[in-house]
Amino acid sequence: MPDRADIPRPTVKRLSLYLREIEQRLAAGCRTISSRELGASLGITDTQVRKDLSHFGQIGRSGVGYQSVQLIHAMRRLLGLDRTWKAVLIGAGNIGRALLAYPQFVERGFHIVAAFDQDPSLAGTAAEGVPIHELDSLLDFIADHDVQIGILAVPAEAAQGVAELLVEAGIQGILNFAPTRLLVPVGVISVDLSRSLEMLAYQISSGDIGQVEME
Amino acid sequence: MPDRADIPRPTVKRLSLYLREIEQRLAAGCRTISSRELGASLGITDTQVRKDLSHFGQIGRSGVGYQSVQLIHAMRRLLGLDRTWKAVLIGAGNIGRALLAYPQFVERGFHIVAAFDQDPSLAGTAAEGVPIHELDSLLDFIADHDVQIGILAVPAEAAQGVAELLVEAGIQGILNFAPTRLLVPVGVISVDLSRSLEMLAYQISSGDIGQVEME
DNA sequence: CGTTGTGAAATGATTCACAGCT
DNA sequence: AGCTGTGAATCATTTCACAACG
Fold first, then answer.
1. CB B20 within 8 A of CB A178
2. Phi, then psi, of B136 in degrees rounded to 5
3. Binning pLDDT at 50, 70 and 90, where does residue A212 land?
4. Which of A12, A20, A191 sits opposite B202 (nearest CB)?
């Protein structure tokens, strides 16, 4: 097992791409795959694929390629996907409720066990089978239910405050949909939809034809 | 005006961050800003800010900083935000409808003028004031209404097909929420929600405390 | 053969250090 | 004094080139 800290972030991002592709191929009956094939499916050079996978040590076989099952295991382990995760959603507005109904989260082992909202009239109701609670109960809930992840779908003005609450409650990481930087001592991944569209506008304006992923 | 093509992508991403911050400060009455202040608000070094802004030529003033208004103009122009954009949404499911209700899009000049869905029972209805049409009418609509952007919120299996349809109709860029690479000759920005959570799981597992943005 | 794994080279991005402006 | 703009240096990432393997 490589020391996670010394794997470059661009590599980690591609690993999750490889993982999905190989899982799909394995489901289709493909038990082995070469760096060339894998790269071709994803628009990545074979050299890059090998460099990335070399972080797992000697796992491929010359003249053959990589064993899908073995590789999937190694990648899931490294990415922290060899377990399930519990998450809470804060903000049961449009984005929040769409996330509750997003089936890929559960498929990938991420379970949203409760939602919280400022609006007291939502408390006691449920959406997509997930109960919605008052924001006041957030702190106790997280501590009681061993929740690792907070998904933040609240307005930008409220985001920092809720983030601090989450951290105080012992959350380990935050997926942030508010267009703000969060000052908190845990890992944060931000999804900024406006900026995604802005980057697209730039690409169009500059005549750039290409694929870009927004983190 | 710098040649857009030669601005590094990391720089462009930060520019949209600078733009938002400076607009907020200007609204608060702040007519001038230094690279130090701007960087501090965003967790970026002052040197980095100056290097990024140097692509606009000599726009700052020594001992003073940058004029907010002037800088905003330059950045909006470069990013393609000195105009409005017309977009269509394809896929009026949970994610799609949440995007229709996302107010920041209109604020930034992105107007979703119509939605399209496979499900014929949705045709003729509307969501958030945006009419939903049958998928068959997509090609004609785009050609007739001068739409530049397609927002793809359909299942992964359907994404490539719809993307080809969009390109055939003359679309110039695609914001893709399906977890697939699109093989099309236009700019694509992908937002992959599962991968965002996966990256968060990795950060937690590796003990990494930090801010990462998903493109 | 086709394929992996990897040093070495090349490219890309950030940070440093400082000259020069107001 | 405080700040910008930038060449040079450092650091990070990708690509090249090729030896070794089955």
1. no
2. -55, -30
3. confident
4. A12
Evaluate whether A102 touches B94 at the Cβ level (below 8 Å): yes
B104 chain-A contacts, CB cut-off 8 A? 179, 193-194
Q: Residue A147: what are its φ and ψ, rounded to 5°?
A: -95, 135
Asked whether the beta carbons of A214 and A192 are under 8 A apart, the reply is yes
| Cα A53 to Cα A29, B42, B200, distances in angstroms | 21, 33, 20
How distant is C1' of D4 from CA of B175, in Å? Answer: 37
**Helix, strand or coil for residue A42?**
helix
DSSP state of A128: T
Answer whether B203's CB lies under 8 Å from B212's CB: yes
What are B47-67's pLDDT values in tens digits? 999 999 999 999 999 999 999
- Residue B159 is classified by DSSP as H
Of A74, A83, A68, nearest to A1 by C-alpha is A74
Which positions on chain D have an atom < 7 Å from some protein CB?
Answer: 1-7, 12-17, 20-22
What 3-state class would DSSP assign to B182?
coil
Q: How far is A136 from A122, CA to CA, in rounded Å?
A: 13
Q: What string of DSSP letters covers B103-128?
A: HHHHHTTEEEEEEEES-GGGTT-EET
Q: In this structure, is the CB of residue B62 within 7 Å of any atom belonging to strand C?
A: yes
Chain C positions with an atom below 7 A of a protein C-beta are 1-7, 12-17, 20-22
Question: What's the CA gap between A16 and A12, in Å, rounded?
Answer: 7
- Nearest chain B residue (CA) to A104: B194
pTM over 0.85: yes
Distance A14 CA to C11 C1' (A): 20
User: With a cut of 50, which residues of chain B have pLDDT below it?
Assistant: none
Which amino acid residue lies closest to nucleotide C5, measuring CA to C1'? A54
Select from B174, B194, B206 the Cβ nearest to the Cβ of A5.
Answer: B206
